[in-house]
Amino acid sequence: MKLIILDHYSQASEWAAKYIRNRIIQFNPGPDKYFTLGLPTGSTPLGCYKKLIEYYKNGDLSFKYVKTFNMDEYVGLPRDHPESYHSFMWNNFFKHIDIHPENTHILDGNAADLQAECDAFEEKIKAAGGIELFVGGIGPDGHIAFNEPGSSLVSRTRVKTLAMDTILANARFFDGDLAKVPTMALTVGVGTVMDAREVMILITGAHKAFALYKAIEEGVNHMWTVSAFQQHPCTVFVCDEDATLELKVKTVKYFKGLMLVHNKLVDPLYSIKEKETEKSQSSKKPYSD
Amino acid sequence: MRGGQGAVRAPVLQFTNCRILRGRALLWEDLWVRGGRILDPEKLFFEERRVADEQRDCGGCILAPGFIDVQINGGFGVDFSQATEGVGSGVALVARRILSHGVTSFCPTLVTSPPEVYHKVLPQIPVKSGGPHGAGVLGVHLEGPFISREKRGAHPEAHLRSFEANAFHDVLDTYGSLDNVRIVTLAPELGRSHEVIQALTARGICVSLGHSVADLQAAEEAVQSGATFITHLFNAMLPFHHRDPGIVGLLTSDRLPRGRHIFYGMIADGMHTNPAALRIAHRAHPQGTQTLSGSIAPMDVCVRHFLQATAGCSVESALEAASLHPAQLLGLEKRKGTLDFGADAGQGPTQGGPGQPEDAGVLGVPGQTSWCSMTPSMSGPPTSQASWCGRRRRPGSDRGPWLERTPSPSWTLSGLGRRGAGLRGASGSPAPGGQP
């Protein structure tokens, strides 16, 4: 794995956004070659989405030939509910960029046959040629998407009942009322994400530190489903200092030492405005055009 | 869905780089329009899987709902109270010209007139949807003749009436048909006013209090009978008195029926009301504030003046006073006076007023009808022909302050027909009917 450690949330978000930008541009997508991107929701990726929107508005990045597949959606929540993941993606990402609605895919939590909806989602991913880069987050209980502790590490897209940890964590979006939080969700499986050619996990904040420790310093364990990515050939964990609080000093020092190498993934920073390499600022300075 | 399949296939317009008035706040949001209605873009994205057919950059301007003027007596040389055959075309002319001042819906107002005039004029002013041809007519506002003698203002004394004898029948006899009527202003202290108010309210007509010497109790009883509006607060009524606030006291009355909302219009042209009075009223009852255009000041000027005068009142409040509140008064807030999804829109704003100070820029105005650009500049009147709207002035009254404050020479007021109460612009020709 690559463990990318930045000082603050904003820098971690920016690094992740730059990485996604470079990957899309270097892929050189076109009408017969779409870049397939898996996307998360929640508060962690918000900063990353803001930067990606900024890149689009500056004309450095386009989502015209990008297909997106979201990880999950609540069951039984109306699509236009302000806390549904459809609303989240629309308000925080889709409405600000040039992606075509036909190229976005989010599970429908109000489908008549939920399992059929999940199976169809897997088919759509297959039809799109698989996921190039799956971006995800981690729950305080170490889950990826809604693959709660105890989920099979080879699972596929299906219906899951949410664990109490997750319901507690999500209550803040529902006026703090536990009764209002949906109890079930449709989610991609651990196996579904493992099939992606590359995986990037965003982990920020001290409350995620223990989950990160369990995910990368302990063994592969279905109680901490993110640990499955220890067996993926191409995983990037992007975190801030606070998220590393439970890691060994040795681990942190090792990966911080590798930042010189890892920063080459985002520097030079490519732009669709210029085809040749663009000399850009080092990753320490804030992005500016 | 309106229009069925046709509406779905209609082109989708997306207005970008703008601030829109929605949910009481100005937000940096795009506005989407299709088939004359404001569209929910999230629904379009996820259900129809469509993008906009056309994008228009608004240059950072504000998009506000079209203004609704519930009291406008004429303008551009037209006087609605004149009983001519051409009233219809006069209304159409005013409807067309007020678009450029941001007004997309209005209530042509008739002052106290003899019954023959009402019988002749009212059928010629039907309710009409707006469009690129002009603002929509929401219905006529009948200001008088059932008003107070002492507070008649410029209304002709000879034609004042009462309904003491036969209450609602007197009303019907006077006006003829009430089909095209939307608002009636009357003085509640007149005998049997409660029956009349109840009868009018039952017919869906908004009853307004004005030109009255009513005390607070009479006013409260009128509201209990169904009145919901106050015509040009402060003007043509008893002044606020600390032991009996009169009609003005309705703003803070605790005797109003539960759930009833009282609205009040104020002529915010800087002349009919002192800005301090505007502020007092607005602070006492911000939810009810409505802007009326006054005499020679068009609506957009009044909105700006109101914003300036009530410094501390937000742009959002000023815009709502001219759009949302009148819509709420007339029960139209689902379709007019807002930019909520499903509200009437039109074809979209035309570009206008580039590079203007922010609140003077495009108040590019969707609303009931077509959109229009606001005339720019806060420092002067619109460059169009002066519009006359709002209250009449009593002929022969002291016009000193008016003349002093007459705006720039480009304003020429045409006369008001038979009353001849025109004003001379600095370089304009005298209006018919003579000058003081």
TrEMBL record, chain A:
Top EC class, one word: hydrolase
Pathway assigned in UniProt: Nucleotide-sugar biosynthesis; UDP-N-acetyl-alpha-D-glucosamine biosynthesis; alpha-D-glucosamine 6-phosphate from D-fructose 6-phosphate: step 1/1
InterPro entries, sorted: Glc/Gal-6P_isomerase, Glucosamine6P_isomerase, Glucosamine6P_isomerase_CS, NagB/RpiA_transferase-like
GO BP annotation list: carbohydrate metabolic process; glucosamine catabolic process; N-acetylglucosamine catabolic process; N-acetylneuraminate catabolic process; UDP-N-acetylglucosamine biosynthetic process
Record-level Gene Ontology MF annotations: glucosamine-6-phosphate deaminase activity; identical protein binding; isomerase activity
EC nos: 3.5.99.6
Keyword Isomerase part of the UniProt annotation: yes
Record-level GO cellular component terms: cytoplasm
CDD domains, per database record: GlcN6P_deaminase
Keyword list, A-Z: Carbohydrate metabolism, Cytoplasm, Hydrolase, Isomerase, Phosphoprotein
A Pfam short name: Glucosamine_iso
Cell compartment(s), UniProt: Cytoplasm
Protein family: Belongs to the glucosamine/galactosamine-6-phosphate isomerase family.
HAMAP family: GlcN6P_deamin
Protein name, per record: Glucosamine-6-phosphate isomerase
UniProt organism field: Diceros bicornis minor
